[in-house]
Specification:
Oligomer: single chain
Strand content: 15-25%
Mean pLDDT: 83
Structural class: alpha/beta
Number of helices: 16
C-alpha cells in the first residue's frame, strides 16, 4: 500500500475503462462510482438547484508502509477498513444531502456530497473528520495512530470529475509539502478564515446557555410487527453562520473546550424531559461518550437527571461504542454495572464497525448489540454479508442479547434482518430523525393504532 497518492495516479485510475468493481479491501466502490454519482445528480431535476454546491474531499493516510512493516499487512488492511467505516459513519451523521464514499487506491478515499453549505462549513466537516480518523485504532499487537491529510474542493458549475480529482491531487501534494498542514484547498485557494477553534468553542458555550442545541429523535421499531418501541436521542446544533453541525462535530468542539460534561448533561436532560410524557412504555436511548465515562461523577449526575426528569429507569437505554471502551474497560464495566443494577439497559453501539474485542461481550453487562449500518448494507445482494449477520445474531442469542439493526433504508434489508432474527430496527425506511414534537405526535398515533388493533 502506498502512503502518498499523487494526482497522476488518481487520474490514471479514473480514465481506465473498467466495470464497477467494489474494492475488496474496504468494501466500498472505486472512483468509477464518483463519475456515475455526479452524473446522476446532474440528471436529476430535483437536485439541479444544488449543482453549485457539489463538494469533495480527498483523504490520504500516512505511515501505512511503516504500519505494515511493524504490525503486519493484516493490521494495515484492517486499519483501512476501520477508516472507511469511520468516514461512512461520520458522513451519515453530519451531511444533510446525498453523498458517496469511494476508494482512490492505497490509503486514499474520496468523499463527495451534494451539500448546500459554505466553504467554512465544508472545512469544519473535513477538520472534524480528520480528528475522528486520527483517533486510536486498536489491533491485536498494539494501538495504531494515523495522520490524515485532506484536500478540499467546492466544484465549479459543470466541472468535470477529472478536473476535480486533478485539482484535489495537486492540493493534497501541497499539503504533504507543508510541515504541519492537515487541510488544503484546491488550486492553492486561501483557507477561509471562517471561525477559529476558539470562536467555535465560545459559540458552543453560549449555545448551551441559551438552549440552542436541538435534540432530535430517531424512531426505533419492532421487526416482528413494525410496532414503535422507542427512539434514540441525537444532538444537532444550528450554528447561525455555519449551519447545521451534527453530533460528531459538536462533541469534538466540546471536547476541545473541555465541555463534554455540560453538553452531555444538557442533551440528556432535554431528551428525558421530552420523553417522560411519551405514551406507553416507549424506550429512550442516550449515547454515552468516552469523556462522559472518564468523569468520576458521571453515574451520580445521570441518576440525578433521571430523578429530576421523572423518566422511568427501566425504559432508559445507554449506548456505548467501542471507542469508549479502549481506555479502561474494567472501569467502564463497573460504571455500566451500576446502571444495569437499577434497571437501565446497555447497548453496544456500532457493532461490526471496528475491531470489536469479544472480551467486551464477556465483561460488560450488555443487553443489546446495535449493528453498524455496514453490517446491513449488503445483505440483499451478498450471501457473505447474510452469513456474517446470521453468525452475529446466533452469537447474540447464545449470550441472551437482542440485536438492533441500524441504517435500514430498503424493504429488502428489513425483511432479511427480520428473517435472520434481529429484534429491532431503525433507519430512513420507516422514519428519519425528527423533532420532539413530531415524535410525540408519531407516538400518539401509533398508540391509537395499537388500541384499535387490540
Amino acid at each position: 500500500m502506498g502512503a502518498k497518492p499523487n494526482s497522476s495516479k488518481v487520474n490514471q485510475k479514473v480514465r481506465n475503462p473498467a466495470k464497477r468493481i467494489e474494492d475488496r479491501l474496504s468494501g466500498i466502490p472505486g472512483l468509477e462510482a464518483v463519475h456515475d454519482r455526479i452524473a446522476a445528480w446532474r440528471e436529476d431535476p430535483a437536485l439541479m438547484p444544488h449543482l453549485a454546491h457539489v463538494h469533495a474531499m480527498l483523504l490520504s493516510l500516512r505511515r501505512l508502509d511503516a504500519i505494515n512493516m511493524a504490525y503486519g499487512e493484516a493490521a494495515g488492511d484492517g486499519a483501512l477498513e476501520e477508516v472507511a467505516a469511520r468516514i461512512g459513519h461520520f458522513a451519515e451523521q453530519e451531511l444533510d444531502g446525498p453523498w458517496l464514499l469511494a476508494r482512490a487506491g492505497g490509503g486514499s478515499f474520496v468523499l463527495i456530497a451534494n451539500e448546500a453549505c459554505s466553504r467554512e462549513r465544508w472545512q469544519l466537516v473535513a477538520d472534524q473528520l480528520a480528528d475522528m480518523i486520527a483517533r486510536p485504532i486498536p489491533v491485536s499487537s498494539g494501538v495504531l495512530r494515523l495522520s490524515p491529510r485532506v484536500a478540499l474542493i467546492r466544484a465549479l458549475t459543470g466541472e468535470s470529475v477529472e478536473s476535480m480529482l486533478d485539482r484535489l491531487g495537486h492540493a493534497l501534494g501541497e499539503a504533504y509539502e507543508q510541515t504541519g498542514a492537515r487541510l488544503a484547498w484546491a488550486d492553492g485557494e486561501v483557507t477561509p478564515p471562517g471561525r477559529s477553534a476558539q470562536q467555535l468553542e465560545a459559540d458552543l458555550l453560549v449555545a448551551i446557555d441559551r438552549d440552542e442545541i436541538e435534540v432530535l429523535f430517531q424512531p426505533q421499531f419492532n421487526l416482528a410487527d413494525d410496532r414503535l418501541t422507542g427512539a434514540e436521542a441525537l444532538a444537532r446544533w444550528n450554528h447561525p453562520d455555519l449551519g447545521r453541525i451534527g453530533a460528531g462535530a459538536l462533541f469534538a468542539i466540546a471536547e476541545r473546550a473541555d465541555h463534554i460534561g455540560p453538553l452531555s448533561r444538557h442533551i440528556a436532560r432535554k431528551a428525558m424531559f421530552a420523553a417522560r410524557d411519551w405514551p406507553g412504555k416507549l424506550r429512550l436511548s442516550i449515547n454515552v461518550t468516552p469523556a462522559d465515562l472518564a468523569f468520576a461523577s458521571y453515574t451520580r449526575q445521570m441518576f440525578e437527571l433521571i430523578r429530576e426528569s421523572g423518566f422511568p429507569l427501566r425504559q432508559l437505554t445507554l449506548e456505548i461504542t467501542e471507542q469508549a471502551l479502549i481506555a479502561d474497560i474494567e472501569m467502564v464495566a463497573q460504571t455500566m454495572a451500576e446502571f444495569s443494577a437499577q434497571g437501565i439497559r446497555i447497548a453496544l453501539d456500532d457493532f461490526g464497525a471496528g475491531f470489536c474485542n469479544f472480551r467486551y461481550l464477556k465483561v460488560l453487562p450488555i443487553h443489546y448489540l446495535k449493528l453498524d449500518r455496514s453490517m446491513i448494507d449488503g445483505v440483499t445482494t451478498d450471501r457473505r454479508d447474510v452469513a456474517v449477520l446470521r453468525a452475529i445474531v446466533a452469537m447474540a442469542r447464545a449470550l441472551d442479547l437482542e440485536v438492533i439493526a441500524e441504517g435500514i433504508e430498503e424493504e429488502g434489508q428489513r425483511q432479511v434482518a427480520a428473517r435472520e432474527g434481529c429484534a429491532y430496527f431503525q433507519g430512513f425506511l420507516r422514519a428519519q430523525p425528527m423533532s420532539a414534537a413530531m415524535f410525540a405526535k408519531l407516538a400518539r398515533a401509533e398508540g391509537k393504532k395499537e388500541s384499535r388493533e387490540a
